[in-house]
Amino acid sequence: MPQNRTLRLGTRGSKLALAQAELVRSGLAAHGHACEIVILKTSGDRIQDRSLADSGGKGLFVKELEDALLRHDVDLAVHSMKDVPTDLPAGLTLTAFLEREDPSEAFISPKAETIADLPKGARFGTSSVRRQAQVLRARPDLEIVLLRGNVDTRLRKLNAGEMDAILLAYAGLKRLGVPDRATRVLSTSNWLPSLGQGVIGIEIRETDGEAREKLALLNHQPSELAILCERAFQATLDGSCRTPIAGLARASDGMLEFRGEVLAPDGRDAVATSVTVALGDNPCSTAERIGREHGLLLKPQAAKWLTL
Asked: SS3 of 33, please?
């Protein structure tokens, strides 16, 4: 494989995916490395008439990108880490993570300032089992309405009155330059996000040493440590795509803070865990160990929801 080649970056074609791909392309360019963007359509983009849980899970957003990597059609794939399954195809690896954007949830509604202010029986749009469970925990009277599509599509459906409120990742709104669309940014203290939310990850072929070396320049270690912890938590729980799992890790000043929870799909029950530890001399190993230990801690208590 020629050295100093132009790297081919595979991405979905939505505005948000392209904005995220551009962050990687421009980051590489700043270090003098050429990169071209290759747009690929994923099953998650094509299937819009049913929930992710009913159509194969979040992996639908990454499968075609990974297939293109394995065929050598592209050299790297850019993902929202919340969409990436913990089991990667043989021969592929996650090699770098950009600095995490705000992982909070954004509440958006033309009818209320907060979820608590929504009228009784209001229609809440989401396709996420996690968001559904968290919303129903707060407001069991609300009607959950299936909502699929990219950010623009979801906002358009909300504006058209198909539902009364939605939740979106605040990171996505910020990357699209429309943070003011958020009616309220929800505190992660009360609303834990999806595991990996706000982090852009870059996947390559394990054997591609040149790509690995170039992309190492973009890696943000605190975000990497957070992702290692969160993905270990997720992998240990081994929940189905119908299991509401949430969590957030933060690494700073040699310390790691992690909080995680598993909810009943109807929001009526949940189990949670939290910890703050020193990262020590091997921070990557510590981050993974903490995620794994706390997954094991919750697994017996959440067993009835993990197999749904």
From this structure: coil
End-to-end CA distance of the chain: 46
Q: Report pTM.
A: 0.92
Q: Rounded to an integer, what is the distance from CA 143 to the centroid of its chain?
A: 25
**CATH code of the domain covering residue 70:** 3.40.190.10
The model's pLDDT over 247-260, given as tens digits with 9 standing for 90+, comes to 999 999 999 999 99
Residues 283, 245: one domain? yes
Catalytic annotation present for 83: yes
Q: Which residues of 82-112 are buried (b: 16+ CB within 10 A; e: fewer)?
A: bbbbbeeeeebebbbbbebbbbbbbbbbeeb
**Rounded distance, CA 133 to CA 131, Å?**
5
Residue 194 lies in a domain: no
Phi, psi values for residue 261, rounded to 5°: -150, 155
Residue 55 has pLDDT above 50, yes or no: no
Q: Which residue of the set 83, 102, 164, 253 is catalytic?
A: 83
